[in-house]
Amino acid sequence: MAVFEELAANGRTEDVVRHLVRVRATRPEAIAEAAAARVRPASLYGPTGRLMVIAADHPARGALRAGADPLAMADRADLLLRLCRALAYPQVNGVLGTADIIEDLLLLGALDGKVVIGSMNRGGLAGSVFEIDDRFTGYDAETIAERGFEGGKMLLRIDPADPATSPTLEACADAVSRLAARRRMAMVEPFLASRVDGTLRNTLTPEAVTRSIAVAAGLGTTSAYTWLKLPVVDDLERVLAASTLPALILGGEVPDDPQATYRRWRRALTLPTVQGLVVGRSLLYPADADVDRALEAAVGLL
Q: How far is CA 150 from CA 2, 64, 93, 122, in A?
């Protein structure tokens, strides 16, 4: 049984952490070896004909909150356990993360046959005064291709009142072009945003999301490899008509009413551009703490 399967089944995290630390300290080259040996998926689509990705790139931006717990994602062993439980589901055919998390999963043997998306810009730390200037401090296109990963993801928040938006726009456009040149997916997560009492907030009206789609779709020298990662908002059918690019529905915050959220996801999955889900905290840290029930409900939608 693979280490990750043992972890998913038994929840024995202590030995796994010791294993990871020992390998990192004594054989760091094992990470590159694991990436080279990884069995790549035949397609971006899983057995359901959809792409189902678990997102775990929040910690690198200092965003550790899930639900009412401000430090829910701070325990790396616990996060790895939850990720391994999710990846044990055949319908969950991908993961999104920064290098530290992806490399832990590689060393655990959890990524064979899975779509791997490297998170690229994590420099706009949550709550910082420079949050909108979202620097590329994670993966770059060259490393994503070198490691054999399937794509890269970037967050694009657009504040029309903040001139620091423009460097992020330019950097995202460059990343889209560089990924496309290497035939790798560029997953763009766009939002219109503004500061409310000093805190950056995403604007989730249909009009705002439509505008963000229009901007994101036009980034780079080609859109051939661009996918969009989008929230569920009102009037979603009209909103998604703004582009012909493949779209993935994001999970967002832990919902107070999971059933209502599942109904919205189910409706979104009937729309022609929607190709699957990218969900993190909603499934890894559900309000009732029953990760397996949340995962079963989500994969059931596919």
A: 22, 26, 12, 19
Which residue range is the domain that position 96 belongs to?
3-124+133-147+227-300
Q: Is 77 a domain residue?
A: yes
* Predicted confidence pLDDT, tens digits, the chain (302 residues): 356 666 656 666 777 888 899 999 999 999 999 999 999 999 999 999 999 999 999 999 999 999 889 999 999 999 998 999 999 999 999 999 999 999 999 999 999 999 999 999 999 999 999 999 999 999 999 999 999 999 999 999 999 999 999 999 999 999 999 999 999 999 999 999 999 999 999 999 999 999 999 999 999 999 999 999 999 999 999 999 999 999 999 998 888 889 999 999 999 999 999 999 999 999 999 999 999 999 999 999 99
Cα separation, 206 vs 211, whole angstroms: 9
Q: For tokens 């979603």, what's the residue?
A: 236
**Tokens representing residue 141 in the block:** 């296109």
Residue 113 falls within a domain, yes or no? yes
Amino acid at 152: G
DSSP β-bridge partners for residue 53: 94, 278
DSSP code of residue 156: E
Q: Domain holding 31: CATH number?
A: 3.20.20.70
Q: Is residue 251 part of a domain?
A: yes
Amino acid at 33: E
- Residue 213: its H or E element: helix 206-217
Place of tokens 């582009």: 243
The pTM of this model reads: 0.95
